[in-house]
Inverse folding.
């Protein structure tokens, strides 16, 4: 288990920013460990969820924004459901991931690449266009041969359309992205 270096001064502005953006009071966490016990991804995390909360309480911005755990979190909300103090821990993990993204951290580059490709697809088409998403992800990540065997299995089942589906409200979805970018320019 990681030991928190208390000789590093806590970044109080970071704590405040996470609390403001997530709407959560991180000081309510008393380290019961229920979040970590319920997390199905703890085995791949470099920092367990309860320790993410502790590092946050200690204001360890660099440690948290550069960790792999925030990128590997599936936001399944097991942690949130199990929290006896009703802290939305999954929301905090999302907030940390958004902050890391804004500040240029990406400990799990392929996860970020997939996320970027997914968001680009939704912005452009109003929903995920699977074939376009796949092509963009492969081009950005360079993972040309990964899961290549899945394509022939998915095509006959109609899981990969060659053209994006037309939807109503596509322009409104694009406006959501524009509004988010305007509100979050810092």
């Amino acid at each position: 288990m990681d030991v928190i270096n208390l000789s590093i001064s806590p970044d109080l502005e970071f704590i405040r920013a996470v609390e403001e953006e997530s709407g959560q009071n991180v000081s309510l966490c008393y380290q019961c460990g229920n979040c970590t016990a319920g997390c199905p991804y703890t085995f791949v995390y470099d920092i367990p969820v309860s320790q993410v909360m502790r590092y946050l309480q200690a204001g360890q911005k660099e440690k948290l924004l550069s960790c792999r755990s925030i990128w590997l979190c599936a936001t399944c909300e097991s942690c949130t459901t199990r929290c006896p103090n009703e802290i939305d821990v999954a929301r905090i993990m999302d907030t940390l991931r958004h902050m890391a993204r804004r500040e240029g951290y990406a400990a799990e580059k392929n996860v970020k690449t997939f996320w970027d490709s997914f968001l680009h697809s939704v912005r452009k088409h109003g929903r995920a266009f699977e074939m376009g998403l796949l092509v963009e992800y492969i081009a950005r990540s360079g993972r040309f041969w990964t899961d290549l065997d899945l394509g022939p299995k998915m095509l006959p089942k109609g899981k990969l359309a060659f053209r994006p589906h037309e939807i109503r409200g596509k322009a409104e979805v694009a406006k959501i992205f524009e509004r988010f970018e305007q509100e979050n320019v810092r």
Remarks:
- The radius of gyration is 19 Å.
- Residues 127 and 178 are 16 Å apart (CA to CA).
- Residues 109-125 form the longest helix (17 residues).
- The mean pLDDT is 86.
